[in-house]
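Why does this matter for the project? Reviewers at the last site visit asked to see concrete outputs rather than summary tables. In response, this paragraph embeds two records directly. Each consists of the residue sequence and, immediately after it, the corresponding structure tokens. Nothing has been edited or filtered.
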Amino acid sequence: MDVMDEVDGMDGMDGSSYDAGMGATPREPTKLGLWAAAAVVAGSILGVGIFIGPPQMASALSSELAFVALWVLGGLVALCGALSLAELGAAMPRSGGDYPYLAELYPGGVGFAAGWLEITAVFPGSLATIAVALATYQLPVLLGPAYDISFTAFGHTAPANVLWAAALIGVLSGCNQLGLTVSGRLQIAVTSLPIAVLAIGGALVLSGALGAPPPTPGHAGPADPAVYALAAAFLPVYFAFSGWYGALYVGAEVERPARTLPRALVGGTLAVLLLYLLLDAVFLRTLGMGGLAEVGEAGTAAASQVLGDRGSFVMAALIAVAVLGTLNGTMLSGSRIAQAMAVKGDFPRFAAKASPRTGTPSAALWIQTVWTLVLVAIGEAKTLLDYTVGAMLLSGILMVLSVILLRKRSPELARPFRVPLYPLPPLFFLAANTAVLAVLAIRGTMSVVVPFVWFGLALLAHRIFRRTGSRKD
């Protein structure tokens, strides 16, 4: 199977499984091969997080050892989460992300609340965070004077980064509307190029082939970081590795999932982890902890340090390409959750329909787009990041915990793939995520706590609506 066959095979993710009950003709999907599945995993992980995260971390830390250790820890946590979801996906293939699993495995509306959290926080929040970061750091370098635009309405002026972020969201929504084959080909194209070029460029810098001047002096974080600082520094790392969550979206779409899925997950996650560590080494060599703490985005700053203005432009272009891949994959996955919820009656029914021509869940896609644009307009990048990561932590904990619950509830269930060294990987994942959440809650990082409040309100709403429906019956 060649690359184009694998891309075309992504049609199985286009929502056709929902069409049969709505008048459309279901199609028999072609499964993803190993390389396509690994590209989806790697492309979902690689994004702007590795470039905007290190400066935030350097502001909280002064130890290079702690800095690197947190990236290794983040990679291990992501790997443990992905392996856990691989077992769940191989044993219970489902469409629509994690919503159908939570709805089936948890009582009392947990699936409903988690689904609403994902379609209002995790996916739109990720899209908004990434789009705003791209529009703030890379587009000014790439567009030059053409970047400076503004729009005034009702006495308020939208800055250029908000307008460009909104334009990116709109264009990519249009690409997804054209169908999965188009968005799938775009995904593979924007995954391979940045990984290859960033890896080669980073290796050249570290080898001395590209000379780097001494690190820029600056003010780093505290000399002896507290637990709070470590937890805060871990948030951008978690966000940078958030693509492990995408494992659930390829689990039911790969050939021989028991064999292909673990290889794709391990290979894709490890490849990005190694690339991240390579880039971190480049950042430390060219900027130092002090220099990192004083820049907004590490990739372009490091490239400028080594190659001047030309390096800034090249790095900005590479980052932009990688970020487009993350935006595209996130947009594709998020719309499928709303579609799955609509099929089950937990979201307005019209969102379940797919385009008869392209298979795209059009209503769900554009609902997601509108809400993302709202977040882009009202949220600052730091607040959006905390808000999104808080929602991701909660959803990830629920999903990985469901692997343990399913083992206890259905020990006889056929599991083509089992988590190695069980129960250590899921327990490690749960411990790491719970510890970060506890520290942040004690610290009072409200933007991280907000998703939990929203989750509780959704649970309450589900209970009220269910009681109301029962009385009517």
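We now turn to the second protein, recorded in exactly the same manner.
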Amino acid sequence: MPLKIDGDSPKVVDVFAGVGGLSLGATRAGFSLRSAVEIDETALGTHSTNFPNTIHIAKDVSCLSGENLLYNSNLLPGELTGLIGGPPCQGFSFIGKRALDDPRNSLFVHFFRLVAETGPAFFLAENVPGILDERYTSIVEKAFSLVREKYHILSPFLATASDYGAPTNRKRVLFVGYDPSRFRALRSEDFSPSITHEDQIHVRRALAGLPSRIDSSWQTEKEGIRQIFKPTKISKGSFEHAYTDHIPLGVGNPEVIEKYKTSNEVYGCLGTRHSNAVETRFASLLPGEIDPISRAPRLDPNGFCPTLRAGTGKERGSHQALRPIHYEVPRVITPREAARLQGFPDWFLFHSTKWHSFRQIGNSVSPILAERILLKIRGLYLS
């Protein structure tokens, strides 16, 4: 049964929304996603496909006032429950240039400016661990100074997606703050992982049912639609439940969901052309080993997927990020496999091309992690 989210559900706005990792986590946690802000037209188009009942705002966050954000979201002052978002992280990432004057770094501050100007009951921002480096202390402090008077700000905490039920070891730093007059007390410890070691999801289980034999000629969206095998018994709250069902009311593309439910068909099983030499090299790798030339890792079926990268945008050369190699066959993973490993459900639709799909997935927070965090916040909100 779809989750019921009505007009009385607490309302959130997702800024720097991408394709909607946080958005999906929020709607699955019982929030109503009033609007999403994203400047990338391709990402916003994908978001609107999966969240057709949400208002979509194609604006630069640095040029958006809180008053305009509320107006464009059809919200009155005081109606917004939560502002959530993942400000661009490239300037803070350990694998980037880490320049202090990277203009993207200021967007973290703009997120907190919007918190101050819209007055939500809580905020949730996510970023890479590199943002906690002391060289960025002034940026974080400047952001906090905008909201410290009204909000109780928890100490930033590190969350590894695999500790919350996702099959990836992707690490994110979470920034949470709340208005004490509208919430019961929150502590960083409240967000400690509840998943036991035995309940963690490894690669083999995460990819179960997806076709492992992918034809390299499957290059178009239509050719990438393939039938999968669904598990026969699915317990509520399990990883299998997360990727097969758990569909909030009004979320998802109806045609895609219907195809998935009636024919067991999914999008994104796109092939990649490898030379015979590359396939031979990939086949010789043991699970967890790294290809010496491409530097791509081979997935360990009994381990977690390493962090999926987004690559670079057109303004930085349109470089494709490394894609892990399948543990069973000598090829890189498909977009649909990447989506499973990031924690996205099979009915969630990404862009029709591999390049955009992998960028969209690599730029997203795991919706499984997002849901776990936002469920805790939802439970302590004094609605």
